[in-house]
Each structure stands twice: as structure tokens, then as C-alpha cells.
Design a protein that fits this description.
InterPro entries: PRTase-like (IPR029057), PRTase_2 (IPR041688), PRTase_dom (IPR000836), TRSP_dom (IPR022537), UCP020967 (IPR011214). By secondary structure, the protein is α/β, with parallel strands linked by helices. It has helices at 16-19, 48-66, 73-82, 85-96, 116-125, 164-167, 184-196, 213-226, 304-319, 337-345, 409-421; strands at residues 2-9, 20-25, 32-36, 107-110, 130-133, 146-149, 157-160, 173-180, 201-209, 229-243, 265-269, 326-331, 349-354, 360-361, 373-377, 385-389, 398-403, 426-431. The strands form 5 sheets. A 6-stranded mixed β-sheet has the order 1-10-9-8-4-5, with helices on both faces. A 5-stranded parallel β-sheet has the order 11-18-17-12-13, covered by helices on one side. A 3-stranded antiparallel β-sheet has the order 3-2-14. The longest helix is centred in the N-terminal third of the chain and has 19 residues, at 48-66. The N and C termini lie far apart (50 Å).
């Protein structure tokens, strides 16, 4: 297969190779994937890089929205592009001072699972915004406020459990995704929101925008039909054309090999740092709950500082368990922002990324985005298969594997086999909520 692309808009002049590489998707509906190098999902990154990419996206939107130039944006961009620890940290300190206030106190919605942290970090930059992310999890005894379909995804059904006070108003809605190719997913959620909680203004923010003129026309038609405005902002926009056969299955062996050696394991309970919510996952017994700080059920503008303080204190606690110099912090599925923020507070050589539901075909070839991969059943929901990509052998002294809920030792065995195979000497199992 081959994908040809041409860039039509690059407002910050960020080189394409900084933002993404390409890979083959195992999907009958779409054959390719732009694998982000700044998202912290499939490729390990410095944990501040996704936070800065999100910030640049938020600031670009704010400038277009208000017509006011943000003078510090250039310094933030330069630090982001530097790729150095000091440059990234200086840029992030500058970003934290650049929060903007927008008219109407917007609601930011991040799309699960890939853009939950991206959306959260956009919310961080808008002083008077609230935040919620969509989810693919079923919540016991609760009806979602919004439902829609992500047609090209491996798991298509999306739900949103925003509290009524967050969504039942006329505030602008800012939808955040890592990439829009056709833009249909955003239109699906806009139509569902508009049918239940009508308003006048929507915005769609993404790192990449590959919509054709036909797709853009669909947005214009939706604006006329619904009586709304739908603006779009991206760090890079362009055109793509695809040739080749779709990959409906992969011959790659994703299974970890059973390891006989004993595991060096530490269990870290962070439940004391985060607020437990009275919502229960449908796939767990009643005593398991979620934590507020993820944003799955909504965060107000006034919650922002408490989330950051919880992550800072949790990172101080985690630091005491460090066993080596080269550390990987690994999020799980939709649980991206909290582990990312904790990782950003750690010192030394820190990498961050997350497990995913997305099946991608690995190829050990220079310039290809996914060099290797492993699959396992999600310890928090053993009906859902997850993947980890791009784990170099011998690259890490330790890994902090982060979970929202307590899971059984049996469910963790595939994770242990993966990291033993990759010669990681120590594995920390980090749990946010535990049992009530």
C-alpha cells in the first residue's frame, strides 16, 4: 500500500516528521494510520511533548478565536521543537502562564481513547473551560448523555457521561481529536449534542486534518442544516490519497512468550491522592470505582488546580520507588493524562506512552512507525484486547504500569511476560483507585 500526501496548511511551520510517521492499520475500513510522535500513544515520548503539542493547538485556536496574538507562543514552540529536557521544561513553564479566557466558558470534549490526554491538556490552557472525555466503557446503572459512532475505529461506539449541568446549556463546545481524516466522527457527536442540548457554536481541534473539499463541504452543509458554526483548527492540514489493499488481518505474532524467571514487582497504591467517584464499571464487581481526575465524568474550571496538585503529590510518592535511570511510564487505554502528568514531574530519563485497542501491523524497518508489538487482554476488562507497541529490548531499567482500578495477579501475567521478554528488570504496578 502507498499513501501520497501534500501539506496545504502548517500555521506553526512544524516539520511533518516531528508530528507523525506512517503505519499499516489492521482494519477493513481504513488501511493506514498516521502514528503521532507527539501524542504519547503508540510511540514513547518525553511526557512533556504531548502536553506542549496540546498547548500549541489550544493557543492556535485561541488566537484565531480572539484575533489576539499570544507573544509567548514562539518561545513555547521553540522549546517544543528543541526536543531537549531543559527546552521542553522551560517551554512548559511558559505555557502554564499562558492560560486564555474565551467567551462563553466552553466545554472541551476529548475523544476516546487516543485523545483523552490531548483534550485534557487543551482544557488546561483555557482558563474558564470545563472538560469531559468520551469513553467506550459501559457504566453500571447510568445512561450516557451523548452517544455517537466512530466509523473507522476498531471499537466504533462512543459514549459520554457528562453531568447534566456541564452539557445542558448553550456554551460553545470544543471537540478535540488527534486526527480528522473525513471529519465524520465530529459531525456525528455534533448532531447528537444538537438534538439534545442545542447551542450555536462548535469547534473541532486536531493535530492533523486530512479532510477533502467534499468533507469540508459536509461541514458547511451541517452548519446550514443545524443553524450552528463549526470552526476547525489543526497544527497541520493537507490532502492524502491511498493506493493498495486493505489489511484485514496481520500475520504478525503479537503474543508474548511465557517467561520462567521470577518477576521483580512493586505494587504502588495512589488511591490516597485521587478522588473516588460513585460510578461503577459494568465489567467489575460493585466495589470497584473510577477516579474523578481522569475527566471521564467531567471537570469544572475550578477543578484544574486540584488535578495538577494530585498528580504532583502522586509523582513525589512514585519517585521513592524508582529503581533505575531509564524509566518508562505506561498508561492504559483511556487512562492517559494522569500517568502522563505524573511522568512529567519525575526526573531523569523518562519516557511515556500508552496501551491501545488499535491493531497495527508492526514492521522492523527504519522510518516505519511501529517496529514491534504485543497484545494482551486488558486487565481491567478481559473482553477487550489491548496492544503495546515500540518496546525496544533492554531500553528501560523499570516500567510503571498504570491502572485506574485494582486487578488480579492472573490478569497481569501477560504484562509481566512482555516486560521480562524485553529485559526490563523491575515492574511497578500503579493503581489509582483501588477498592472502595
Amino acid at each position: 500500500m502507498a499513501v501520497d500526501l501534500s501539506v496545504t496548511d502548517n500555521p506553526l511551520s512544524i516539520p511533518e516528521q516531528v508530528l507523525f510517521e506512517m503505519a499499516a492499520r489492521v482494519n477493513k475500513k481504513r488501511g493506514f494510520l498516521f502514528v503521532s510522535k507527539v501524542l504519547g500513544k503508540h510511540i514513547p515520548v518525553h511526557p512533556l511533548k504531548p502536553l506542549l503539542a496540546s498547548g500549541l493547538l489550544a493557543l492556535e485556536y485561541a488566537e484565531r478565536k480572539t484575533g489576539r496574538e499570544l507573544k509567548e507562543k514562539a518561545d513555547i514552540l521553540n522549546g517544543f521543537l528543541s526536543g531537549t529536557d531543559s527546552g521542553l521544561r522551560n517551554a512548559y513553564r511558559t505555557l502554564q502562564k499562558q492560560r486564555v479566557a474565551l467567551e462563553g466558558a466552553p466545554l472541551v470534549i476529548g475523544f476516546a481513547e487516543t485523545a483523552t490526554a490531548l483534550g485534557h491538556a487543551v482544557y488546561d490552557c483555557i482558563e474558564n473551560a470545563s472538560y469531559v472525555h468520551t469513553t467506550r466503557e459501559q457504566i453500571r446503572n447510568n445512561e450516557p448523555s451523548i452517544t455517537f459512532v466512530e466509523e473507522h475505529s476498531h471499537a466504533t461506539d462512543q459514549l459520554c457521561y457528562a453531568e447534566p449541568h456541564m452539557i445542558n446549556n448553550n456554551c460553545p463546545v470544543i471537540l478535540v481529536d488527534d486526527e480528522i481524516t473525513t471529519g465524520k466522527t465530529a459531525l456525528h457527536i455534533i448532531r447528537d449534542i444538537q438534538s439534545k442540548f442545542p447551542r450555536k457554536e462548535y469547534a473541532v481541534l486536531s493535530l492533523l486534518d486530512w479532510r477533502t473539499e467534499e468533507h469540508k463541504q459536509a461541514y458547511a452543509e451541517a452548519e446550514r442544516e443545524l443553524g450552528v458554526t463549526i470552526s476547525t483548527t489543526a497544527l497541520l492540514s493537507g490532502r492524502i490519497s491511498f493506493k493498495g489493499e486493505l489489511l484485514s488481518e496481520s500475520i504478525y505474532d503479537y503474543k508474548p512468550k511465557p517467561q520462567e524467571s521470577a518477576i521483580n514487582r512493586t505494587d504502588i497504591d495512589l488511591s490516597g491522592f485521587f478522588a473516588t467517584l460513585p460510578y461503577q464499571p459494568a465489567t467489575f464487581a460493585d466495589e470497584h470505582f473510577y477516579v474523578k481526575e481522569t475527566g471521564r465524568f467531567g471537570l469544572k474550571a475550578s477543578d484544574r488546580q486540584a488535578v495538577h496538585e494530585a498528580c504532583r503529590l502522586a509523582a513525589q510518592h512514585v519517585e521513592q520507588y524508582r529503581k533505575g535511570r531509564r524509566t518508562l511510564v505506561l498508561g492504559t487505554g483511556e487512562l492517559m493524562y494522569i500517568p502522563m502528568n505524573i511522568a512529567a514531574h519525575l526526573h531523569g530519563s523518562i519516557s511515556y506512552h500508552s496501551t491501545t485497542r488499535s491493531p497495527i501491523h508492526p514492521v522492523a524497518k527504519e522510518g516505519y512507525a511501529v517496529q514491534n508489538g504485543y497484545s494482551f487482554m486488558n486487565p481491567e476488562d478481559e473482553e477487550v484486547r489491548h496492544f503495546i507497541y515500540n518496546l525496544p529490548a533492554g531500553a528501560y531499567d523499570e516500567v510503571f504500569f498504570c491502572l485506574e482500578k485494582t486487578v488480579s495477579d492472573e490478569a497481569l501475567q501477560p504484562i509481566f511476560h512482555i516486560f521480562k521478554e524485553k529485559e526490563v528488570p523491575h515492574i511497578h504496578i500503579v493503581t489509582l483507585s483501588g477498592k472502595a
